[in-house]
Every structure is written in structure tokens, then in C-alpha cells.
From TrEMBL:
CDD domains: AdoMet_MTases (cd02440). InterPro entries: RNA_MeTrfase_RsmD (IPR004398), SAM-dependent_MTases_sf (IPR029063). Keywords: Methyltransferase, Transferase. One of its GO terms (biological process) is rRNA methylation. One of its GO terms (molecular function) is methyltransferase activity. This is Methyltransferase.
Amino acid sequence: MAPPRIISGKAGGIRLRSVPGSGTRPITDRVKEALFNIIGPEIEGASFLDLFAGTGSVGIEALSRGASYVCFLDTSRQAIATIRENLRLTHLEQGAEVLHMDAFVFLKRSPTRAFDFIFIAPPQYKGLWEKALQTLDSNPAWLSPDGTVIVQIDPNEYKPLEQLTHLEEIEQRHYGSTELVFYRCKTTQEASAAASYEED
């Protein structure tokens, strides 16, 4: 697979470094372009959380297109080094924060800010996307009230998560062997009803 590139914006056309080895699952340029076509102008000035960030390709694309702040998380030292190198290559260090830590530990913390977009693309076939969504659902202040969660998975991994209290699925998009699933916050009334149902 060719190295990922930045498709549009301030760093458009720049090729990124890949993380050594086969432990990461890079997003294809086709899927990334489709994702940012869906997000559209909402990325301008937005805050973006790139969990399981790998090369940092998605978060760096967000910065290139005008996001004001992107936080990158990964547990791999090689991934963290690659993200820092890719930020240097694209001259997009400003507005970027790179954290070498576990996504689940991060999501369980008391939120320090609300993100407009949260991107979740963990290693495949381990149920980690479900765990990440459920952890976020238990601590929803990480997501702004009108924010969007985007999950990247293989279509075979997908299943409805009906037990979510604060988040709801709003859309799915399929691109060959990749599926993007979009979630948002439920209204206060919907969330209260879901929480009441769980308590019964």
C-alpha cells in the first residue's frame, strides 16, 4: 500500500511516513476523502480527537483543512514517533497535541474539553471499537452536544449497540472493506429515557 497522503488544505499532496510493521490499519485515501467530504466545512475551526491514531493521517488531514486543535492518542511508541514526524513534514505542529497513552484510560478521565469530532479506528476484530464507544458513552462530556463520533471498522465487525445511553447511531457509509459509522449525542429527553430504562 502506498504511503498515506494529505489530500487537501494547507498540506495537500504531502506524503506521510507509515508506521513500521503491520500493527496499524491505515485509512485509504479514498475513504479519508469521502469522510472529509461528509464532514465538509464543519472541520474549519473544530476540535478533533484522533484515537488509535497510527500514522496520524486523519487528524493531520483535519489540521490541514482548518481544524483548530487535534489531539492524537496511541499506545505504540513507533506510532507516536511517526505522528510527530508527519506533523513536522506537514508543518502542522501548531494546534496539535500528541499523547502516548491508552485510549480507554484517556476516555475514563474527567473531560478537560469537549471535542467536535472523535475518530475511532482501533485494531480490527478485537471488539475495541465497541469498548471505546461504550467508554465514551459513560463519559459523554468528551463530545460537544452537537459533535460527531466516527468509527472506522471492517463491515464484518459491525453490530448495533442498542445499550448506549447518551450516543445514537445516525449513519453508515460503506467503502469496500471499510465501513464508517457515525454517532451523535441523543437529546436530553432521549438520554433521560434511556437511562431510566436501564435502571428499571
